[in-house]
Amino acid sequence: GFEISIVANAAFVGDDNKSFVLDTSQYENLQFRDGSLQKEVATAFGDIEGIVVVVEGESSVPLIPPQDAEFELPTGLGESNINFVPTAFLQASFAPLKGTEIKARFFPKINTSDAKVGFYGFGLQHEFTSWLPADKVFPVAISGLIAYTHLDGSYDFTDTNIVDGENQRFENNTNTLLFQVIGATKMPVFNFYGGIGYLFRNFDH
What we know:
Largest sheet: 7 strands, antiparallel
Number of domains: 2
Distance between the termini: 40 Å
Radius of gyration: 23 Å
Strand order of the largest sheet: 1-7-8-9-10-11-12
Low-confidence stretches: none
Oligomer: single chain
């Protein structure tokens, strides 16, 4: 059959995803004000204050020295005790063969005054136990899933005066490939789901 649905869920953010180590040696014109090479800084869901960085400026006018820009890194949503990511997207699934589903997910690109984000993905899921004689007797389904997702987004900070210039923005393009084994009960009322998988991730920023 064919099915279209709107899926809404929330993913909780663990402590290990609220910060990351910023290594200034990986950048040509960025350094911490106190001279440190590495510091733990907040992600979008962290809460680390007082981290000041210096961006080394360039001068295009002879005899005029370059001007460095200094600013404090923003804290994340952890300051407001927000520890989850709500999502909603359109999902369509089609079952061309017994125990097999082709899935597609789509979130239209949302444009605000300074940010853009959107994603799409598709996958193939097959229930191995649908071919076993005990399918009607043993109320457990075991499936395999292969899914691809592409997410792209950008944030334009030209108007924030963090760095002087035009078209100053962060851009991110992420591609993931998921291999997963899923187990689920097939009881009349209550059911339990679980899975284990491996995720390949590639991103540009």
